[in-house]
Amino acid sequence: MNKVGFFQGLAVLLLWSLSACGGDPSSSGETAPGTMRTLGPEETGISFVNQLSDNLDRNIIEYLYYYNGGGVAVGDINNDGLEDLFFTANEQPDKLYLNKGNLQFEDITAQAGILADDAWSTGVAMVDVNNDGYLDIHVCKVGVGVMPAAHNLLYLNQQDGTFKESSKDLGLNIQAFSTQACFLDYDLDGDLDLYLLNHNVHSVRSYGSIKKRKETDPLAGDRFFENRVNEAEGQFVDVTASTGIYSSPLGYGLAISAADLNGDGYTDIYIGNDFHENDYIYLNNGDKTFREVIKDWTDHTTQFSMGVDIADLNNDQLPDIFSTDMLPFDEEIYLKSGGEDTDQLKRIKADLGYEEQYARNHLQLNSGKAYFTDLALQTRTFATDWSWGVLLQDFDNNGWKDIFITNGIVKRPNDLDYINYLNSEAIAKLDEDDPERTRKLIEKLPSEKLHNILFLQQSELEFTNLESSRVGTPTFSNGVAYADLDKDGYLEAVVNNINEPAQILTWKDRAAGGNYLSLHLKNSAGTTALGTKVYVYAGGRTLYQELQVVKGYQSSVSHRLHFGLGDVSQIDSVRIIWPGQGTQVLSELSVNQHLEVERPAADALIAAGGNPVEAQAFEVFPLQHEENPYEDYEKEKLMPERLSQEGPAVLYEDLNADGIKDLLIGGAHGYPMRLLQGQADGSFQNLEVDAFTRDAGYEDASFAVIDFDADGDLDIYAVSGGGAAKELEKALEDRLYLNNGNMDFRRVALSLPHTNGSVVAVADFNKDGYEDLFVGARSIPGSYGLSPYSFILTNKQGRGVDIAYKQRFGMVTDAKWADFDQDDDLDLIICGDWMPVTILENDGEGALEYLPEEANGPALTGFWTKLAVADVNQDGQLDIFAGNLGTNSLMQASPEAPVKLYLGDFDENGFVDPLVFFQYYDRYVPLGSKDKLLSQLPGLKKDFVSYSKYAEVASFEALLPEGQKFLVEEKQAEILQSMLFLSTADGGYEAQPLPAQAQWGTIQDLWWEEDARQLYYISSNAELMAVHGNSQSARGGVLGDYDAAASAFKTVQSLDLPRGVQARALLPVSGRQLLLITNNDYPYLLSSR
């Protein structure tokens, strides 16, 4: 391999994919005043150090994963009831420590027969591979490339305190780029099979399409081995080819964990891949094969996946997934670090077949319906910097699992100033084989010790903030495992560090913790207990865990299941589902005990039952919406959101007065709107309308029916939009189509608005007998952030329209007419981006006025998307539902720390530049990388030569000291939550956030069903441009049974929606069915409400 080819390949990729990626408050060297106390070698007897000393032959340039560190394994090797520890080293011998009790350990490496070699060890697992009742030890090696020749090791427990290295005898002496071995019983035959996770090291410049997954790579490709140790073969047998797993050169496997994800009783596997290759979810088919479903089960994953754990985080008895990445939380490091793909690179990778990735942590919440929803942004667990292992367990015993994450990187290769140095003249003039070149490249790399993180879960998915979650001292930590090493009822975390002793972190405040139950599951029949599921019923809730030990990063955890119970003093029952689905029930258990549980005989078990999760099938409506190929953010590089893919418009009304509603679906530029006539049997018949075909050059943004000429039938007003045309151009002209009563529509030649429109709302607000229109505009194309003109048009008795109001309300997204003040005339409510929900009061004579400030209206600014009006609490006054961006976003906002938008022609080139600042963690940062900013404002290059200089920017004034004189307008968004604005007796409104589930995405549509008194909503997230966003496909829900006393909905249900689509509208159609309208996809007919 080219000496620095792989390393420079990474540099090329990072330069291409620059992002606004955090010195770090956790690198101060101080011990964090957190919840755990760090025990060093003088207290524990553990003197192990994973010491690395790079040289010209072995270093991060020769082997990119040089600083990835080693692992930890926990297990009771001598069955004395105390769990022992094994540490792997990269350039030193591995070490085995015997637990002597009271957190005291003895190094027994030599007498136990553990090899004293210095071959490059990586992952380690303690499992019983031969079902003799004693734990064995498997160690992975990188034994190829620049590393010393070596193969993976398997130490068989001799039951006398010693081990015999038996990898060759058992067929596991694999020589490859091995990361970790995950042991699982994939065929439920009672013994442990092995998934061997390997990683590649080739240049990222040479990656190809996903077709390469069909290739095999003997050194980097993953492998699967079936355990036939106690059968005729007497060893593990390579069955990779028949299982359906990938064993390709694309794999950069760093993370692996196993669990039954779909509830069918078979163990599934999650693989975390580094770089461009997607993570894998392998669902076990139950016939010794797997199917890979990451595309179907997730919207996106971590990009540089490093660690993973699977556990039930929110106590809904479903396994969730947390994976780690390397997004900094410190603002300075964030702004000078690379990692996120550019928009261009995202499109290239999509064309090559790769799924969406983001370079940040992911918290994938299991829906129980064959898909996950990433909530790392909403829970603020998305950025923990260069993170490795992650463990999901209850460290404070309050009944909610916490998140422990190890951190630190000895040499940070994604520092953007360093990447510029790689391409500098100082390096270019040196010969590639010159040792001085290598020395300089290594010395110049930044180094950053970091605190490890323990996010304590205080209530459902509510975690402690990052600052208070730091634990221990700053380190370069990698592998981590948990266990109750001293059997005091609290878990310890055992951490493998680079260049300093391994540490044990123990819970500090015993008095503040809760009760617990510890279970040791034993299978006396000579078969494995891994894969056993346990449900603990106590205190009115159910806690769930599955026994799997390979977790986090290169590590394996305790074989005992630990349940924190909070203040519960009595356990009602424990239900244990053993592998094979046999169930055992234990009743009325006391708390605070370590319980040994042996699997009873088969005839004493109960059949488990249960329904495996299957993805729901949906009826596809055969009418595809196709977007025109236009990306507005390519012209406006600093706009924070994409506005070019917000359609299609849709209308569901009875257009021919036959008592059956018809359907009109709009088209993007170049595609005509399509009219479907509703039939008595619930079907639709496509109608060709010449006027619609002729107007295919318009982009349909919104529709409304209006009896414009008061002839008794419904005409159609079509709002035109799109960002490709300039304001006032013909392509943005609205249209009015008159109906002859039989859906034979003809366009009327009227002078109508020419804006990038968004919404039309119809009402006879001046009570002259003719319906009038509010026409809202979304933006001024080419000038994101500036408010376009919106219009109120009065109907001139069917002969034309007059402009009653022409005003720049904001970037309008929706509008409704309703009598809010109960004075028997129609008022107008408007919402949009960077503006408040705005009410215009009708004075009874057709004049509209803003609510006075003292009226306490819904004045919070946001990214408001949709409105619905209803008397929710049945007090006789109308309330307002307002959809918003949602809190599952990189940006967060509050009245005290709003998202800020500065508008002006800051480079004096005749175009508006939108500059967005938001509160990241401790301070404001600009939205977008230095390179993104300079692509629109090249004049700033002289002010920000280095990324370090840009990383200091914390305000508009710091970015542009002279910016105020060019500032045209300043806007802000104070809140991102979707809200219920509840009317009050004094004519004001009380703001109540909708339930947490309704905040998971950006609301695209919502409506109130009066008969059932329920709110239906759908959401889809459009990612923020070129930052660590959250592109999320359709989600939806139903909120019902509003309790006025508690100011909350009692029922919160999710809607079953198709996967991988961008939802735009949800319509109640014939019967009790729903029609989901999507962008650039087909509509879907959903089952009855």
UniProtKB/TrEMBL annotation:
PROSITE patterns: PROKAR_LIPOPROTEIN. It comes from the Bacteria. It holds the Pfam family FG-GAP_3. The keyword Signal applies. Keywords: Signal. InterPro entries: Crtac1, FG-GAP, Integrin_alpha_N, UnbV_ASPIC. Residues 529-595 form the ASPIC/UnbV domain. Gene3D superfamilies: Integrin alpha, N-terminal (2.130.10.130). Residues 1-22 form the signal peptide. PANTHER family: CARTILAGE ACIDIC PROTEIN 1. This is ASPIC/UnbV domain-containing protein. The lineage of its organism: Bacteria, Pseudomonadati, Bacteroidota, Saprospiria, Saprospirales.
